[in-house]
Write a structure and sequence with these properties.
Elements (H helix, E strand, L loop, with lengths): L3 H9 L1 H15 L11 H18 L1 H11 L6 H4 L1 H14 L2 H13 L1 H26 L6 H12 L9 H9 L23
């Protein structure tokens, strides 16, 4: 028991600080050009892009395996072994960390497109709401509330645990000094939670 005690601190003591230095150096040399942490849903979107890219690169092998397996049931592993190995080999060749990094870069490049799409949907929602209010004779919405929603829409999506609006306000010095009203965790959070 006493012999084990010194070995544990030595592994976590001076040796780990040197190991941590090596690990930090390895992390700095990572091939990823986008080291920002993403949320789980954003990582799922990156993974979906990655899978699409790999399937696109191996489309011929996947099609050959699908054609072989189309009329078979129990004999697929035996009759389509070559096509299966070719498909799996192609996918293993292309499913690399470098390809994942390219998918991640593609996801970051499409941020502006997603923001424009989100803004277009929100505008359409406001137009439909205005029509609904006019149709049923309801009073119009408070202009300050509409302005706050438009400002929220113009903000960037959250990447790395920070929003673009906070970064912009801190970087340009245009912040008003007041905290923005808390926003609901999801879409469809009603107005009753804002007041």
């Amino acid at each position: 028991m006493a012999a084990q005690q010194p070995s544990i601190p030595s592994a976590g003591g001076s040796g780990s600080s040197r190991d941590d230095g090596v690990t930090k150096d390895e992390n700095l040399a990572m091939p990823s050009r986008n080291p920002l942490p993403l949320s789980a849903s954003q990582e799922a979107q990156v993974r979906e892009l990655f899978n699409q890219r790999v399937r696109h690169l191996c489309a011929d092998e996947i099609k050959a395996f699908a054609d072989c397996a189309r009329t078979r049931t129990f004999t697929i592993p035996f009759a389509c072994r070559d096509a299966s190995r070719a498909m799996n080999g192609c996918m293993l060749r292309h499913a690399t960390p470098a390809e994942h990094d390219r998918a991640r870069e593609q996801w970051f490049a499409q941020r502006q497109q997603r923001a424009r799409e989100r803004e277009r949907k929100e505008r359409r929602k406001h137009e439909q709401e205005a029509f609904h209010r006019e149709w049923w004779g309801l009073p119009p919405r408070d202009p300050d509330e509409v302005r706050r929603e438009v400002e929220r829409l113009r903000g960037e999506e959250r990447v790395g645990g920070r929003t673009g609006t906070r970064t912009r306000a801190a970087g340009t010095g245009t912040g008003t000094g007041t905290r923005p009203p808390p926003q609901g965790g999801g879409e469809g959070g009603g107005e009753d939670g804002k007041r």
